[in-house]
Specification:
Rossmann fold, alpha/beta, 6-stranded parallel β-sheet, 20 strands, 3 domains
């Protein structure tokens, strides 16, 4: 019996089904109609966003919250270009998302036809890999390669560009089971023997250190090494600090956790970074923001870096390998760095714990303010207290700093934020993605009035899917951080005041219940109410303009 014929689009959806993809975020268009036709009969659910930028942000939020790769889809030309902001955001934070774009038929490529543009050139700088498919066989092979790259790392967006005629083509149904001859670039996914041989050198560095420090990033989470790092830290008693996206690798109330390191780091996190003599970087890229917390004056600690992504390696000893495998291998030969063989580690840990107790953050000393309208830090503290351990999605804005400083992160990816790119408008669509990844939770989105209006149309998506989400709108009628920087560096502000709409009526127009608050205690009360409602709820929080505290390197 001859195999049944199906469209290439149907074959693609079937492969995604085999990979247990549950949600696709997108917006239909002419060049991808066959893909949407295949979705009609698929168990994969589609989330209709109101702008393609939001599809990419939602796929990003879904990936962070689920630990799996996210999927977004857009049509050719304008639809695909609208994805760019969200894809760039995911790229800078190394978030695994599959970006599927339709394209004009292959015979119209480069002919200046309707919606024709070189999408692979557009996405190349913001993707780990971009694929163009000239035929059905390539389309299937490229999809399988994309999935393998997303699952094995280094993480980041993979772009799959599919011309309309290829999607529409009929193929044998069993094509999805055929070997695609997946061949990756040498060394991109496999650990080299030279890296494994460096393990003894790493052990010797840690053994000779008097004040070692682990700096852990999100790459450790994506490698699935949470159990391994806890075992390693507990056995060696080496203190651990994290990058922003690594927060929650250890509970931030754990005795071994020094919290965030860098320009918004905790006092003890930055003290540890300033005084350590060896840094073991696991799954982090040592961004300029992290490096502000490492070393001081004449103290330049040796840096050992373990990362799958060779482009991030900048240490004195570099290992391009999976963090989980690194930890498993080093534990086999780590007897010499155990506390009983290295008394310095115990003294160092006690020094840090004493410093932490004696040096609370200056912004931690007073929490309650009685002013009306509220100080933003009072509003944020009430939100976080009410939210407890709910997943927080943080947009860019003045409030971002207060969330970073006040939030105690107790589990990985329970505080979502685009740290490396920082676009306004990320919060709401990313919270949508997180809601689908964690449906039993009430997601709490904290968004400024400036950023909110950049993706405000996604209130329709929130309502249509009846998402369990509390939207905390921090409303100071201005672009607060820009105003502060203008006044600091240019002697005055310009074009930062916002004449806002009535956000209560606007939310209600979308079918979302909303309330306005401005008094101490009310924020806590209504966030609690919103979480218990298990449906969309917007809280418009009137706050006064307030400068954010400056990082030490700016103060100096």
């Amino acid at each position: 019996m001859k195999p049944e014929k199906i469209s290439c689009a149907k074959a693609i959806i079937n492969i995604l089904e085999q990979e247990d993809v549950e949600w696709i975020f997108g917006h239909p268009g002419e060049q991808i109609l066959s893909l949407y036709d295949a979705l009609r009969s698929s168990p994969i659910n589609h989330v209709l966003v109101r702008h393609e930028q939001s599809a990419a942000h939602a796929a990003d939020g879904y990936a962070r919250a689920s630990g799996k790769f996210g999927v977004c889809v857009a049509t050719a030309g304008p639809g695909a270009l609208n994805l760019v902001m969200g894809v760039a955001t995911a790229y800078r934070d190394s978030i695994p998302i599959l970006v599927i774009t339709g394209d004009v038929p292959t015979n119209q490529r480069g002919q200046n036809t309707f919606q024709d543009i070189d999408l692979c050139s557009v996405f190349k700088p913001i993707s780990r890999k971009t694929f163009y498919s000239f035929n059905v066989k390539e389309a299937i092979s490229n999809l399988k390669k994309s999935i393998e790259m997303l699952k094995k790392g280094p993480t980041g967006p993979i772009h799959l560009n599919l011309p309309k005629d290829i999607l529409d083509s009929l193929v044998d149904e069993n094509i999805i089971f055929k070997d695609s001859n997946i061949d990756f670039e040498s060394g991109s996914l496999e650990n080299s023997q030279s890296d494994l041989s460096k393990l003894k050198k790493v052990v010797e560095s840690i053994k000779s250190a008097k004040k070692p420090l682990i700096v852990a990033g999100a790459g450790l989470i994506w490698s699935g090494a949470l159990n391994e790092i806890k075992e390693f830290v507990n056995k060696t008693q080496i203190p651990l600090a994290t990058t922003y996206h690594g927060r929650g690798i250890l509970r931030e109330d754990d005795d071994y956790c020094m919290g965030l390191i860098g320009n918004r780091g905790t006092p003890v996190g930055n003290y540890a970074g300033a005084n350590c003599d060896v840094v073991l970087g696991l799954g982090c890229r040592f961004s300029e923001r992290t490096l502000t917390g490492i070393g001081s004056g004449e103290n330049n600690p040796q840096i050992v870096q373990v990362n799958m992504d060779s482009e991030t390696l900048k240490g004195d000893i570099n290992l391009q390998m999976d963090v989980k495998e690194f930890l498993n291998e080093i534990m086999k030969i780590s007897e010499s760095i155990m506390p009983e063989n290295n008394p310095h580690s115990t003294l160092w840990l006690k020094e840090l714990q004493a410093y932490s107790q004696g040096h609370p953050a200056s912004y931690d000393t007073k929490f309650f303010y009685s002013e009306v309208p509220l100080k933003p830090q009072q509003a944020i503290k009430e939100i976080l207290d009410a939210a407890n351990d709910s997943t927080i999605v943080n947009d860019a804005g003045t409030h971002t700093t207060w969330v970073t400083l006040y939030k105690k992160v107790l589990r990985p990816f329970s505080l979502l934020f685009s740290g490396a790119f920082g676009p306004m408008g990320y919060g709401l669509p990313a919270a949508i993605g997180a809601s689908f990844a964690r449906p039993v939770e009430s997601i709490v989105a904290i968004i400024g009035d400036g950023g909110f209006q950049m993706t405000i149309q996604e209130l329709a998506t929130v309502h249509q899917n009846n998402l369990s989400m509390v939207i905390c709108l921090i409303n100071n009628s201005s672009l607060g951080i820009i105003r502060q920087w203008q006044e600091m560096y240019h002697g005055g502000s310009y074009e930062v005041e916002l004449e806002n709409p009535d956000f209560i009526k606007l939310a209600q127009a979308y079918g979302i219940e909303a309330v306005r608050v401005e008094s101490p205690g009310d924020v806590f009360k209504f966030v609690k109410k919103g979480i218990e409602m298990k449906k969309p709820f917007l809280i418009d929080i009137s706050v006064k303009e307030e400068n954010i505290p400056l990082p030490d390197f700016i103060k100096e």
